[in-house]
Automatic annotation (TrEMBL), chain A:
Protein name (record): Putative polyamine transporter subunit membrane component of ABC superfamily
Gene3D superfamilies: MetI-like
Compartments, as annotated in UniProt: Cell membrane
Stretches assigned to the ABC transmembrane type-1 domain: 55-260
GO cellular component: plasma membrane
Transmembrane is among the record's keywords: yes
TrEMBL record, chain B:
Any one annotated GO CC term: plasma membrane
Record's keyword terms, sorted: Cell inner membrane, Cell membrane, Membrane, Transmembrane, Transmembrane helix, Transport
Record keyword tRNA-binding present: no
PANTHER family, sorted: INNER MEMBRANE ABC TRANSPORTER PERMEASE PROTEIN YDCV (PTHR43357)
Keyword Cell membrane part of the UniProt annotation: yes
Name of the molecule in the record: Putative polyamine transporter subunit membrane component of ABC superfamily
Family: Belongs to the binding-protein-dependent transport system permease family.
Annotated source species: Mesorhizobium plurifarium
Matches recorded under Pfam families: BPD_transp_1 (PF00528)
Amino acid sequence: MKQRSFLLYLPVALLLTPFFLAPMAVIGTESFSGQHGIGAEYVKVVTDQGIRTVLYNTFYVAAMVTILSLLIGYPIAYVLARLRGRWATIGIFLIFLPFWASTVIRSFAWMILLGRKGPVNSILLGIGLIEDPIRFIDNGLGLMIAMTYIMVPFIVVPILNGLRAIDPNLPRAAAVLGANPWRQFLAVTLPLSMPNVAVGCTIVFVTSLGFFVTPSLLGGDLTVVSMLISEQANRLLDWPLASALAIIVLLLTIVIFALLRLSQLASRRRGKARSGVFA
Amino acid sequence: MSVSEKRLWAAWSRFLTGLVGAILIGFLVPILVVVAVSFQSKSYLSFPPNDFSLRWYQQFIGNDDYRSAILNSMMIGASAAALATVAGISTALAVVRAGAPGSAIVSALSIAPAVLPQIVLAIGLFPISVWLGLQGTLWAVILAHAVIGLPFPFITVCGALTSYSNRIEIASMTLGANAFQTFRLITFPMIRPAVIAGFIFAFAASLDELVLALFLSSPSTRTLPLLLWEQLNFQVTPEIAAAASVILAVTSLLILAATLLPRLDKDN
């Protein structure tokens, strides 16, 4: 059995070697094959003002979307975790319904909603909150709203799982010891849910770094790194630069997930050390 | 805890639940807006729509571009999901049951396509697809989508395999069944709901994917998201909203199938 278990890897090897691992090798070599000498593309990425702005925009948008998703997603997960039976099912169904609509369609929906004469501007003008329509699509605001809308389910699911895994006796014990509900939440529930908050934030941040569809449709003048890579490859045919940018995105993704893993291992070790004290 | 404190907390709790309920219902608004504007007769998008017509649906049905794009998306989605599911099942068996060496690395690689930005894969796959002579054929997109679909059946089948003990399979082997018979008669019936769910997730991932299709397809292998994308960049018309509404209806049926089929399957 053990010897032949290698055979079970055959399909995945046939799929991933040529169509996943080889592409990574290709962009790796391509990124060093520019006419300006080895490593010149990377120097350009670091020094070129335009590229630096694009990288800054990408990080800024990803960070804002992560914060917004957390602020909206945590209360949703908290309420859903306390619901039981049919209401819990309905709540999870509702959060997943838009999740299934294609990204192009959801971005299109926000193009309608946030247009200069769209419903959001009409309502805001109607109730007199603003005097001129807000140009959501030019200033990156519309992009962040649409991306947050798309990303919220990704952060709700891990936090919901974390909150459900908390032993209900722990907040109860805190209550017995005299903690009011706010204190129970801040001292017990919130810290215990932090590992899953970290997972959710990582997923949202990394996914946001790679977003292409929504920024292209709603970003206005704002360019993010995926759009730049696509433009360099498709329109300017500068494959070495596109590949160098892709390698940087790839490395960032790996580093962010490695950091998450390290923090998980560290907190597990701390947890073990702590339980050792009581044992 | 004092009575007033209790009351304050109860009020806050109710407020929070109400707020979350409102947010969840608000999440449906963008989708409903798309459906609403698809039924207007004007040729530019206006909201609220002040008349009702099926004009854009008629145009959508008569549009050959959409017909071929839907057909392409269905063929690519089904083939990619099938490849991803076969690879996913086999890898999950190797990792969870057979204790094959290197399982940690293989697991990480099998999940990686779900988190890797698609533009990175697209940049690397384009030259390979050209070298292999796949560029512009359906196979270029099918194989790329099989890679990004792989994590879903892999994760669902791993979950199913860890949820029951391997003693049943050992019993089957002890009673004289070979590995293949054991898989067909014991393992597969046990993991079937997970296989179906994984297949549908992989299919949905392919139906939603744009960036790889953008790099790897030709006008004749254009997928549905790609066509929508091109139209949106060219001119925003209610016809796109009509197409989007039809797609939304079809995907909703798909999700319903994904949630109901495994349950029905379990009952049998």
